[in-house]
Amino acid sequence: MHKLLTISVICTLLISISVYADQISDLITGETTPESAPKTEKVIEVNSSVHDDKKIQKRLEKIFSELENLQSIKVMVSNGIVTLRGDVSTSSTKNKALQLSQQVAGVVEVENELKVTHHLKTRLEDTWKKFSGTANELIASLPLVLLAILVFVLSWMLGGWISGRRNFFRKIASNPFIANLLGQVTHLLFILMGLIIALSLLDLTAILGTLLGAAGIVGLAVGFAVRDTVENYLASILLSLRNPFEVNDLVNIDGNEGHVVRLTTRATILISQDGNHIRIPNSTVFKAVIINFTRNVERRFQFDVGIDTEQNLLEAQALALQTLGSVKGILSEPKPLVTIEELGDSSIKLRIYGWIDQTNFSFLKVRSEAIRQTKQAFDQANIIMPEPIYQVRVLNETNNLLKQESRTRQNYTPRTDSQINVPVHEVTDTSTDNEIEKKVAEEQSQSDTENLLNKKSALE
């Protein structure tokens, strides 16, 4: 049952396709015209004779006899009304006969009794004639087509050769990325020029507008689809023109801190202080607030110290300044600074500032040494740094546990300096730490990815 139903559906489709083959063909080729001839406003004369009808009939018969596809049409005229009968091969032929009949003077109306034939032999002959005509035209225009193809290929190859002259473009733009971009644009211009010349040789320049329109629509659709990619690429161009940082610079980009490894056409690569890779899209980099800690060799650090409210603040500030002056790596100019930051319930917070030269000293090491020596100086001067006071209510069981822990602490013997194996000079060392810089250099040597950061480019 299912097979019979399938066969019947296929037969119905084939019959429908055969019946409407001409309509589909005419629709594809763009030759479709209205089934009836376009009506024009004519004044119908009062006087009409059989002689006039015969003149119209003879005129139409002579016209149709000169046209190959209209020779079989029979024409009958009565009182200015033309009746067309017969078989024609295509619907476009039928519409052509109707249009010619309507254009003859004295014709009031055209009655269409023409039928599009579906005879297999006739259709095959007509199709063969069309195919033969198309083939002859193609053969006749083959030399011109080959010449157009040759011009297009030569333009393509010439543009590729010129775009490959990198030294020439680097004379125009020192930035390698911009020079490469200029080469690609030049190649594209040569391709477009070759296409225009080829279409002009074939007298198909009208197609160029259609192609450009289609390319614009496709480009718009693709642009929305890959908007982020396009945005990153444009941001790469702008960042490569004016570099906001250099290789090995310590930067903070949108909350991500690390040393710069490279700038690619899509992203900026950092190595964090922990040795991790951070990849940030260039569109984010271009719009983000960038903090460059390396651009200025002098950098200021700070830390807070709490002292007892009974202490002499001036003496504590003076001692902190004196201590900072003795720490190796802290600059005397700009001068260190100690301010009273906050007055608390049980302590007063001092904020201590100091400047270092990042080219010769490590920021983290100098800050660590400054904190250590300040704490040591305050202890030697009996400046109390109180701990926060809390009122805690404990239960009996918890109280017993606390007493046991207190006994354990009393029996604990701290390690002496002689038992510590790490040399003191390693702790107090404030020289620069180049571990991350070494990782950056190693990363660049192992990767063949092009870096858009160029020392010749302008810096922001």
Please give a handful of descriptors for the protein shown.
single chain; 460 residues; alpha+beta; Helix Hairpins; SH3 type barrels; five-stranded antiparallel beta sheet; three-stranded mixed beta sheet; 15 helices; 13 strands; 17% strand; mechanosensitive monoatomic ion channel activity; transport
Description:
By secondary structure, the protein is an alpha+beta fold. Among the domains are: 1-32; 126-225, Orthogonal Bundle (Helix Hairpins); 234-294 and 443-459, SH3 type barrels (Roll), CATH 2.30.30.60; 298-390, Alpha-Beta Plaits. The protein has 15 helices and 13 strands. The chain has helices at 2-19, 21-29, 50-66, 91-103, 120-163, 166-172, 176-201, 205-225, 227-241, 282-287, 313-326, 363-380, 396-410, 424-428, 435-446; strands spanning 74-78, 81-88, 109-116, 242-243, 250-253, 256-263, 267-271, 277-281, 290-292, 298-308, 337-343, 347-357, 458-459. A five-stranded antiparallel beta sheet has the order 8-7-6-5-9. α5 (120-163) packs antiparallel against α7, α6 packs across α7 (176-201) and α11 (313-326) crosses α12. The longest helix is centred in the first third of the chain and has 44 residues, at 120-163. It is elongated, with a radius of gyration of 46 Å. 19% of the residues are buried.
